[in-house]
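Protein chain data
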Amino acid sequence: MTFRQCSAIKHIPDVAKGFNGTREFKELPERVSEVKKRLAHKRQSRTENDAAVDKSGNNCLSQIQTLRKTFKVIFDRLERRTISEMEKSKTSLKNKIKADIDQFEIVTEKLEMLTDALKDGSDTNEALSYIGFTKCDETIFNAYVLLEKIANNDEYKMTFQPFKGISEYLFSLEMLGEVICEGGEKPLPGPDHVFEVEKHVLHNVKVADDKDTCEISGICRLANG
């Protein structure tokens, strides 16, 4: 494996000198609080969605049992297969929800661990403060990536759709109907999609040797600010 040589190397204590007094470091607790608040909100939303999946599963079961009255002779065989498929689908959805909740908890615990470490060492060792800030900043960025991913996912739910023409094809069917799972990642917005702006900040980026008028239509904030 071949690596490119570093063009310059800086000693962390030199880079971190005076870092505790910077705006970025002072604003870190507020940023952590904000992202923890959003993580908690999404965790609560997913927890409620978990119960909604159970409720929608119960609704599916009710529809299946109502249909059973019409086709009692051969319903037992089809019902078992349909309910089995529904339970598999419900388990799959609940596992996805649990995975989201676990990610929220992991990121939250990591943020708490990093901020606690910063509190313990920030007054005596600026190098540790710098390292802790960098890791915390990276974790905050990852948290926002996670929140954006979840925001683009629909709430999971299930509905039951009986097969059409069931009275004609009943004896040849393997199941009563299809269990439809909804939710997950939304499609990316098209070019005409209108986004809602949460906040904006104006910056003057003109430099002394500018000769022409420059038009910047958009800019993104990186994880390090």
In short: The chain has a mean pLDDT of 81. The two ends are 32 Å apart (CA to CA).
